[in-house]
Amino acid sequence: MPKDEAVEDGARPVGISLDVRLALEEAIGYGGISSFEFAGGREPVRKAQQAIEVRRAEGALPWMDLPRLDPSPYLEFASQWRGQLDNLLVLGIGGSALGTSALGTALLHPYYNALPASAREGRPRLFVLDNVDPDQTSALFGMLNWERTMVNVVSKSGSTAETAAAYLMARGVLQEKLGLQRSGGDVLHRHLIFTTDPETGVLREIGRDEDITMFDVPPGVGGRFSVLCAVGLLPAALCGMDISSLLSGAQAMDERIRNEAGADNPAGAYALIQFLEYMNHGRHISVMMPYSARLRDLSDWYRQLWAESLGKAVDRSGRQLHIGPTPIKALGATDQHSQIQLYAEGPDDKIVCFLRVGCFDREAEIPRLHAEKDSLAYLGGADLGSLLNAEQKATAWALARRGRPSVRIDVPRVDAYHVGELIFMLEYATALAGELFNIDAFNQPGVELGKKATYALMGRRGYEDLAREIEG
Ligand code: PA5
Description:
- By secondary structure, the chain is α/β, with parallel strands linked by helices.
- Helix content is 46%, strand content 14%.
- It folds into 3 domains: 17-53 and 245-441, Rossmann fold (3-Layer(aba) Sandwich); 69-241, Rossmann fold (3-Layer(aba) Sandwich), CATH 3.40.50; 445-472, no CATH class.
- The site of 5-phosphoarabinonic acid has 15 residues, from loops.
């Protein structure tokens, strides 16, 4: 396909960019964000960024340091295991799984697990199990060659019921099939690794007792902000993703955000648009719609980041407000034939964010066939990438014609560097949005309550009173 966007600019790749024009009144008419409104938001965003940077300087936001993490322990571990594994089975849920899936889908071959071992160049297939569905779990466990499978149990707390159940099941299979016993030495080391809190939790305890290889989730880094630490980096390195570039991209975005303060940087402008849509325009639904199958799971990761961070009952002074935009994921062009009718003509309660790729990795030219049939001939000679991007442009335009706002993030290429940029931009935007909404973006009391209720219903010791309360 024609290289329609430069991807190199001297030493550093051209970065991702945000285009907000189709959210503005001058482009979509009444109902769009006015220039007066946007200008009025600049100062609050600048202050929000200042507040975040103060907290970073105090050491209260350690996820912001992750782009500067040294990747070498993960790279060394991966090179040590290269050629010895067929499968990497990641057991985790929520923030302990979604980032890894997003990285795998974006950065590995689109059908990576179906590639022959030689094409994977000695790296394992990647399976991320983030549910306790019996059909899915049994089917997956039944098809793995456990002799050549490594299980990475990822849980910051160590005690999340779904991950704990999956760990017990995987360990049961390992013990049964391979005779893995407590302090099984080499056998244990070949098949189990833990990624967990450096001090606390049951996984840390077992890991210490049994000398299992462990990697840390740095203290103070919450699950949904943890993809750029061992949680995402370790599986990514084992499967051959370029984690150094991933971190470089995140670091470049961090520098850019700090150099172009407030609404002048993409994180600030993104947070401001989302905030104004919610507060002033009643658009409480925020759609993330990549026009790239490889970015599909990144919008899944983002959905959790945005929902768990911003959906809160109280503001920072404890006042009840029950606030938070509802994130929705959609995929272009597929969901044009499923969701766009609703976005265009249903309630005007959505802001759509398109992700558009400048240059796809693969060319896919449509053959010039049926020259005599007008309804097919126009496609001949075009590349699928230009068709996909034309569909994105057409959809944004059609929405704008109906006064429906959208923004667009341009991703020059789907590679580790730009995915790193995108991840950090969206994390920073989430933190800024938290400041603008005046809520704590880093807690999740609603999730914790459900976790405790599950413990109670499943008979965990210490939760008897809660069990009685639930059962009435
Ligand atoms: O973002 C979060 O904090 C949550 O989604 C957690 O990641 C999720 O609940 C899993 O928690 P843990 O890693 O403790 O098992």
